[in-house]
Amino acid sequence: MLSDLFEHNRRWADEKRRDDPDYFRKLAGLQRPEYLWIGCSDSRVPANVITGLEPGEVFVHRNVANLVHRADVNLLSVLEFAVETLEVKHVIVCGHYGCGGVRAAMDGNRHGVIDHWLQPIRDIADGCGEFLPGEDDRERRLDRICEINVQAQVAGLARTPIIQSAWKRGRAIAIHGWIYGLDDGLLRNLECSASGPGDAVKAGRCSCHCIDKGQ
Ligand SMILES: [Zn+2]
Predict the structure, then answer these.
(1) Centroid of ligand 1 to alpha carbon of 18 (angstroms)
(2) Which residue ranges make up each domain of the chain?
(3) Confidence grade of residue 214 (pLDDT, cut at 50, 70, 90)
(4) Which of 8, 21, 110, 131 is the most interior residue, by most CB within 10 Å?
(5) pLDDT of residue 213 exceeding 50
(6) Rounded to the nearest 5 degrees, what angle is found at the Cα of 182, between the Cα atoms of 130 and 175?
């Protein structure tokens, strides 16, 4: 029931005030998170909850399948504000295994407008092609696409003019690719971080090494 949400909210606010009477005054006066989180909209992957971060500690953007579309003014506005005004030090792209967006992109069915949104995932899967687990191991194949999708978004972010210009000005910003397991609640580092212009190409290198193998 919706009234439950208000009830929970009042209880939460009371608890916070009980622990620290100045909690909301301090929070309202300053927002200085160190992290920008770009994650999936999936309700089971809430950034603050799974990282144990408090309000004010992480700036969040979420969309279906944690994609970085080059012309997405929503994401680009969030990114620019996080980099230029909040001066975050880390940008985390976090995907998750069992992503419904990745599944929908690969199931061959028509779902509506979302199919356009998910097109980059099909492009990525086509690019890695033969290096992915086969259709006979469908779940592992989808999991690999979830991982490669995160790596591709890290590389895409590293190439945005916002990040390139920040690096050129000597700003220390690192972009990371992580993936979350719905079945164990754990985050894994996909080891595709980029912290300077030279890393942008490396981050785009798919971990199946299809690029190295001449694809
Ligand atoms: Zn998802």
Answers:
(1) 36
(2) 1-30, 32-202
(3) very low
(4) 131
(5) no
(6) 70
